[in-house]
């Protein structure tokens, strides 16, 4: 497949206004964050950076981020009233603004989520036209778009782990589109972010989870599904 | 090998050689490039048109007040006001405003080609369908033609205000709408492309200078003027008037002007209307002032 646009990018996407980077992109980032947490958060601290820091309220990005945490899609008319739905769902949230994080993308948002005892931190960038990049997950450099099928594997930093996982994915007839590996330190925890062109079978995910040296496997199919 | 929508010239040649209507190679493109089938494409276009119609209705029926207060039920006022030119023109303007106001007020729209220009095609298409009593199928074919026009502009210039200014967003939307109108009224390929050329000629140079950075002022009124220009251009083109500068060269001019435009005129809210005294005062009022500014060294560590 080439990088040529779809006619549904020209006549579309169908979305909630006012701005694809401020609403659609932000909804997608929050939906990814919810997937990584694995459930609806009880509490969310949301930090908007740079350009987002000043404009998030006027553009409704605050409602968009809460809507994404409630797992609403980018064309869901409930985005406008997301705060009311959050109250019903017992989701507690707060916002912060940081104006000058010059090393970050102009439209960056950080989500710190908790549910039960579990905590995650996600840094996402809204890159225009509703496209996103998840830049960091729990301090690991991530860089994935969430438009394909994403596999996030946290494992011990041991020899051959990358080749092994790539081989297992290949056996599922999955082509790997992008892959990023980062680690806390030598022989410490490593995190692999793998984007595949097609879906991975539940059985394969179970197998990966059963491996002794694998701590956690998170699977996020196309974020708009 | 399917047409890749690199130029209007190739699109024209392809349709003449293959004896196909303008929308047909757009279908083939999507099938070959994106793996969709014909049914999915027609369904998708039908859905998009339905969302456009719903946005027009919502904007004319429901309360449309934006958080900043700059949008305040303008479309409804226009719909009921004294007629300036003709009832049809009044409806066109009201409908383009309505769909765009829905966008500014966090309603559901079709970004065609972008959210900032999302009132233009709904205003144009619902009005042409009503005046000429066209079946939905004709409008959907017109939407495919509009998509082909956008593909070529994206390829050779830009569709984004941040890259090419307002001319790239509302200018492209108006060009798409104008071409679609001439197609829907049975115009020839020359006439459809002349409508695109003339519309671009009218929209060139328009800067993107949104007050407070919000997609409200002047975006909303420019959706109305874009729709009006699309109609004046369609009228000129359908009469067989020669645009003189060929459509592909008009697109090149759009790209060239966009490239040389200073960044303060490209969605940054630093120039034009955004930089006026009133623009700045509104910006102070609606933008968040309570922002943490990190000491230089902490920028990185804080994450």
From TrEMBL, chain A:
EC code(s) of this entry: 4.3.1.17
Catalytic activities: L-serine = pyruvate + NH4(+)
The keyword Iron appears for this protein: yes
Record's signal peptide: none
GO terms, molecular function: L-serine ammonia-lyase activity
NCBIfam families associated with the record: sda_beta
PANTHER family attached to this UniProt entry: L-SERINE DEHYDRATASE, L-SERINE DEHYDRATASE, BETA CHAIN-RELATED
Protein family (similarity comment): Belongs to the iron-sulfur dependent L-serine dehydratase family.
Protein name: L-serine dehydratase
Organism: Rhodocytophaga aerolata
Gene: sdaAB
TrEMBL record, chain B:
UniProt pathway annotation: Carbohydrate biosynthesis; gluconeogenesis
Entry EC no(s): 4.3.1.17
Enzyme class, UniProt record, top EC level: lyase
Domain of life assignment: Bacteria
Domain named Serine dehydratase-like alpha subunit: residues: 21-274
Keyword RNA-binding: no
MF annotations from Gene Ontology: L-serine ammonia-lyase activity
Recorded catalytic activity of this chain's protein: L-serine = pyruvate + NH4(+)
One Pfam family in the UniProt entry: SDH_alpha
Cofactor: [4Fe-4S] cluster
Keywords carried by this UniProt record: 4Fe-4S, Gluconeogenesis, Iron, Iron-sulfur, Lyase, Metal-binding
Keyword 4Fe-4S: yes
Family: Belongs to the iron-sulfur dependent L-serine dehydratase family.
Name of the molecule in the record: L-serine dehydratase
